[in-house]
Amino acid sequence: MDSPDFDAIIEDFFDAYFDFHPTEAAEAGLHDYDGLTGRRDADTIRTYLGRLRELESRLEAAGGASLASEAGLDRELILRQVRFDLFWLDEVGTWRKDPRFYASQMDLSLLLLSQHAPLEERMGSIVTRLEAVPALLEAAWANVEDPPRPFVVTALVSYRGLPAFLRGDLAEVFASVEDPELQARFVAARDAAAAAIQDYASYLADEVLPEAHDQYALGPELYRRMNALLAGVDLPIDRLEEIGRAEIDRLRALGASLAEQIVPGEGIEAAFRALGEDSPVAGAIVETAAGDIDGLASFVEGEEIGTLLPGTVEVKEIPPFRRTNFAYIMIPGPFEPANTGFYYIHPVDASWSEEAARDFLRRNNRWTILNTSAHEAYPGHYHHFTHINRAPTKTQRLLTSYVTVEGWAHYTEEMAWRQGLADSDPRLGLAVVQDALLRAVRYLSSIGLHTRGMTVEESERMFRVLAYQDPVNARQQALRGTYDPQYLNYTLGKLMVMQLREDLFEARGEELDLRSFHDEFMAAGAPPVPLIARTMLGDPGWQPFR
User: Fold this and answer.
1) Can you tell me the distance from the alpha carbon of 133 to that of 141, in angstroms, rounded to the nearest whole number?
2) Beta 312-317 vs 340-345: how paired, if at all?
3) Would you give the distance in Å from CA 480 to the centre of its chain?
């Protein structure tokens, strides 16, 4: 039986969590939070930490065994989120060492790209957020001390780009709004925000960066605890590394086999180059992705990969202000009435040279686009979230695990190819391998950078040699590993889903088919994979990687 006291804990948790993370509430479709930016001054952070410790004590006292199954899972999810925030804010101290922590509150993408309200209404929310930017930067000035060099370098990318975005792209987006009072507020807020950002960027570049150090590693103890919280499984670091190296070996062997089918006798690098020759023309890259969507949905339904729930995916060109990734998808949160996902693709930029455009198209060729679309739309993220948004409780719909969300989408890439997507063409298979190698090297890089004394240069070399990345992307990936050790999630989550699938088919035999497995998995929301597995298998002690 559920307890009224436990219901109160849930409400108190979300009140505290969304008060500190209002942008996440807005992303979930709670639009009362649209104009809010989480405060980041030291007093606010310490108050939030105190609320989290109180909630942790109340959750521990509530006990799991006395709660009904859904409430028991809710308790586990909230307790993990509380401990995760305590880990990063209190133990690691991200707010004291990473300037990027403050830039994350300045992201306006959701309000610009979402269609949930008229542009004028969304502009009002954005203006309110911009008015809070100077206070955010005051907090950054006061709180951040002695940050590691890679953190400063990557923060500068954001801070140097934001003023031009505010004065250029953002002003252009709002030019059609005819409310003079709102326009005046916008100009004042924009200029104040841009000036505060420029001042902080100059400070980071001129005073902080020259003295910055390279002590970014979590260290083995914190890293292991991070991963246990993240993945729901506590593994020794040696074992984690062994698992990652085995996956690299598997993928490289698979890649060599596929290369032999594509360019017999010429090797895997020649096969990757051959993929690049099958590229869309410069003006058709978005149309190529759009053309994949209906076929992917039909494939999921026709090959009985999973049950399609109501909803559509629209493919759009990434606007200039958000062109930092090749592709991403915006999926309606559980409280949004609409269920259309917006899948954004990077076009060829008209300002690029002919050579730059050609390299971009080769890298993002037809097969890579198809694999990316499978990851982002069907049977990956969009397909998954249409199920997550129907999970039994609010907690299960809102508190998703990075390792499960990204692990599922990554798992679906190879699964779909093996199940017959594009007739299991070896060229699609090689595109799957190429993307999987990148994620597997992230996995090893995360472990190396944070527990093995690996340098950024050594990580960069690993991306170039093992994942066949170009120098620019290899450098970006290596730098990301210093501040985002969680980017091992893609491979770690994929491998856990694969292990669960194997164990479940062994346990149920002919009673189970692929659609049933996938539907049952997605219906569980997206807690860490071991929590899903223990319910599906009826084994409270289930562990992956035995």
Assistant:
1) 12
2) parallel
3) 13
